[in-house]
Amino acid sequence: MVIETQTLILGAGLTGLTVAAGLNRLGEAPVVLDKSRGLGGRLATRRVGEWRFDHGAQYLRPRGPQLAALLDALKVSSAVTDWAAVDDGAPAYVGLPGMSGLVKPLAEGVDVRKGVRISSARREQERWHLYDADGGLVAKSRVLISTIPAPQAAQVLAGHPLSDRIASVVMDPCWTLMAAFDERPDLPDISRAPDTVLPWIARDGSKPGRGTETWVAQASAEWTRDAIDLSRQDAAQALLAVMRDRAGGALPNVLHADAHRWLYSQAPKPLGQPCLVDRDAGLVVAGDWCLGARAEHAVLSGDAALAVLQDFAVAEAAAR
Ligand SMILES: Cc1cc2nc3c(=O)[nH]c(=O)nc-3n(C[C@H](O)[C@H](O)[C@H](O)COP(=O)(O)OP(=O)(O)OC[C@H]3O[C@@H](n4cnc5c(N)ncnc54)[C@H](O)[C@@H]3O)c2cc1C
């Protein structure tokens, strides 16, 4: 059945759910569509048996008041906690029981439809029409808020006058290793090594409530580009070999090793404005990539989109 609603949000990551939670507070009832089976987008947690791996964002650190306020609220819901291993001065926060848990309170009471992948969105007869890969009509709405990564948004909105600007934002790929060992490797909880194959190696199991030797390591964009066509298993083995070198040439027994390929992980050169707006068409395009490469930028972009939507509502009421 085709979904018909006033306001559709594409993407149930931190940007989309920031907008959705805000609209819900204002008494709107947006519908959120996401291709994944879970919530959170790049605030991601992979569960494998007893193990959990945060294979996307590693931790959140507020630089400004908006993310700080959100984290304070999420602490009350027991959805975030401090990760003491990041001991470089300022507190670092992680989701509970994994990073994806951080967005759950934002999604409370929101109509999220999971497993819905949109291939194109077109404005026809004063409504947004969203289609799947087979050209089937999935949803119709008056207002559309896209919060998906820039390259995906450019594809979905191909033909719209904003699509060239959206397509100008490049997002780096990132192979991420997820490994579990029977003992602790000879590495600190966190190793940062910029300009190497693995700029980030972390003992994910040192996050509160984990207590296992689970490790996450993220490859550089350069290495990932060269290795983009590897299978998951080959990427995992290649990154384990790099991790072994970093651990002095030996690792404990590997109980599990897999890799996840983020085609669009972070935008090194963001758009430079909080969101893009086509007021006449009822379109707002938002996402972390508008302002930066961190989760905080998702919140800032989501808040900016929300302010624009409130303007839409005021203008519409005045026109009636
Ligand atoms: C490897 C990695 C490490 C990172 N490390 C950190 C870190 O340590 N600290 C930090 O602050 N940030 C980090 N980030 C960035 C952080 O994860 C993002 O800034 C933030 O999660 C972006 O949220 P978003 O809602 O804008 O986008 P997303 O989280 O990408 O949400 C977009 C959603 O849209 C959905 N979607 C996409 N296309 C479609 C479609 N066609 N149809 C339907 N649904 C679709 C996706 O499934 C996804 O759920 C990292 C990211 C990665 C990948």
Overall SS class: alpha+beta
Mean pLDDT value: 96
Molecules bound to protein: flavin-adenine dinucleotide
The CATH architecture classification of the largest domain is: 3-Layer(bba) Sandwich
Largest sheet entry: 8 strands, mixed
How does this structure look, described?
- This protein is of the alpha+beta class.
- Strands 1, 2, 7, 8, 9, 10, 16 and 17 form an eight-stranded mixed sheet that branches. A five-stranded antiparallel sheet has the order 12-13-14-11-15.
- The chain has helices spanning 14-25, 65-76, 104-107, 150-156, 163-167, 221-226, 232-246, 295-319; strands spanning 3-10, 31-33, 46-48, 51-53, 80-82, 93-95, 111-113, 120-124, 127-131, 137-146, 172-181, 190-192, 200-202, 214-218, 254-266, 276-278, 283-285.
- The longest helix is centred in the C-terminal third of the chain and has 25 residues, at 295-319.
- It starts with a strand and ends with a helix.
- The protein contains eight helices and 17 strands.
- The protein is globular, with a radius of gyration of 20 Å.
- Helix 1 packs parallel to helix 8.
- 27% of the residues lie in helices and 27% in strands.
- It has two domains: 3-45 and 101-170 and 270-319, FAD/NAD(P)-binding domain (3-Layer(bba) Sandwich); 46-65 and 82-97 and 172-266, Polyamine Oxidase, Chain A, domain 2, CATH 3.90.660.10.
- The structure holds flavin-adenine dinucleotide.
- Residues 10-16, 33-36, 41-43, 56-60, 117-118, 147-149, 152, 156, 174, 176, 218, 262, 265-266, 287-288, 294-298 line the site of flavin-adenine dinucleotide (FAD).
- Residues 10-16, 33-36, 41-43, 56-60, 117-118, 147-149, 152, 156, 174, 176, 218, 262, 265-266, 287-288, 294-298 line the site of flavin-adenine dinucleotide.
